[in-house]
Structure formats: structure tokens, C-alpha cells
Amino acid sequence: MLHGFLNIDKSSGMTSHDVVGRVRRLAGQKRVGHGGTLDPAATGVLPVALGDATRLLEFLVEGRKRYRALIKLGVVTTTDDAEGAVVAEQPVPEIAEAELLATLATFVGVIQQIPPMYSAIQVGGRRLYDLAREGTTIELAPRTVEIDQLTLLGWESPLLSLDVTCGKGTYICAIARDLGAALGCGAHLQALRRTAVGPLTSETGVSLDALAADPALLVERLLPPESAVAHLPRVDLDLDAARLVRNGMPLALAEPLVGDTSRAHADGALLALLRYDGAVWRPFKVFSWR
Description:
By secondary structure, the protein is α+β, with helices and mostly antiparallel strands. The chain has helices at residues 16-27, 57-61, 97-105, 128-133, 172-183, 208-213, 217-220, 239-246; strands at residues 4-10, 32-34, 43-50, 65-73, 75-77, 86-89, 109-113, 122-123, 126-127, 143-156, 159-166, 187-197, 200-201, 234-236, 261-266, 269-276, 281-286. It has three domains: 4-63 and 199-227, Pseudouridine synthase (2-Layer Sandwich); 65-197, Pseudouridine synthase, CATH 3.30.2350; 232-286, PUA domain (Archaeosine Trna-guanine Transglycosylase, Chain: A, domain 4, Roll), CATH 2.30.130.10.
């Protein structure tokens, strides 16, 4: 069984689940998962985990994400993107670049954002997009999200392009929606490409077509499982300490480590993730890589 991560450059028209299905067939194994869902129309970086690396996906996708977004002003849709039906159209006023930059600046930082109705958030055990398709509208509470930067790449009315860096849980289509509201003309997300998820970038991505054309690429482009936790402090264990960890026993480490989570290696391979409880380090994920 293969264990590791593929940096898939997803093409438009595929769901994230479609990508997982293709990788399962190419790899000949069932244990495959993805992190950081991309809508079918969006393209770019989609992390795909194989084997026991699926247990590390949460650490890979909790990092910053980066996008190239094309926003169309003057048109509001049911889904806040180009896939939805048009519900309102307004003339786009003359907007100076300075005004646009000042408005964009209000979205940078820790902000409150209302998720779109057409999202995978669950309410009462049901996905919002299923409720929305039935015509049910729910008043959603705002969520705290972090937007590190919104760089204006181009502006020619009614289209503007942005380079966005943000934390997890941020909806780019909601940025488009709220930007249009702030400018008084409405807007929706016309196109989206994700250019980075944590350490994975679109420059190093591989397409499904390339993997299908050259099966050897599946192994060549497979990133090691520890790449998801490379940011955590590392401790190398001797045989006795490794035996304890494999049996789920805690360790009292002599060397100080920064933070309360670390990665333990034995014989050069990632063995476990450890969490400090104030006295000892306890393993909470242990790997065998068989």
C-alpha cells in the first residue's frame, strides 16, 4: 500500500470526490482521501492522501490557503458564484482604484463572515446546499475567519482579479458577495483557482491526466507522510522509547520541545505524534506504514 500525499492540480468540472475516485483506481487501493474541498468549477491545489497518510490530512490542510479569484460586479447569483441563477443585476458605478483598494482593506484581518447557503456546512444533519436546492433558507450566524491579504491584480469594470491568502473556513465566494454589497452593486465569484494549501503549491502540482498517462508518476510525485507535520518539533527515539510509543505508553523526554505537539521518529521514519500533558508526552497517533 502507498502512504503519502499527492498534490493534485484539479481541473474544472470535477468534484473533489471524483478526484479521489480516480486516484483510487490509479493506485489500486481504497484508502484515499482529500482535504480542503474544491467546488467543481474551481481548479488548482487539492491535497490527496493515500494509505495511513489520511490520518495526517488535518495537519496539512490547517495551514494557510491561497487563491486567484475573478469577481464580476453588478450581478448577484443564488450561489454567489457563476454556477447559480442570476437573481439581480445592477449597473456598476465608476469606482476609482483607490476606492476599491480601501474597500478591500476592510476585509483583511480577523473578520466575521456569513457562509453561503450553497455550502457543505451541516445544519440538523443536512448539508446547506441540499436545503438550498429545496428552497429552504436558513439565517446563518457569522463565523470568524482570517484573511491575511487581498491583493488587487487587475481591475477593468465589471471584472476584478484578486490574490487571496486566508485561513481555513474562509469562503471566497462570500468575499465576492460581501465586496459587491460594500460597493453597492452586488457581485459574484466568476472563477477560482487555488494556488496553495500549506506547503503545497500549484507550481508543483500534477494533473490526473498526467498520472494516467505515466503510472510511474504516482510514486515519483508522492510526498512522504511526514511532510504534513514538518512544522512540528521532531524527536528521534531509541529502540526502548520507540517500543513504549508503539504500545501507547507515555514518554518523559529530556530535551525541551516547543509547543505541546511533536512528532516522534524511529529509524528515520515517522512513528507517532505526541502531545504534552504537562508532565509527559503521550502518543495520540501511532503509525506502522505497512
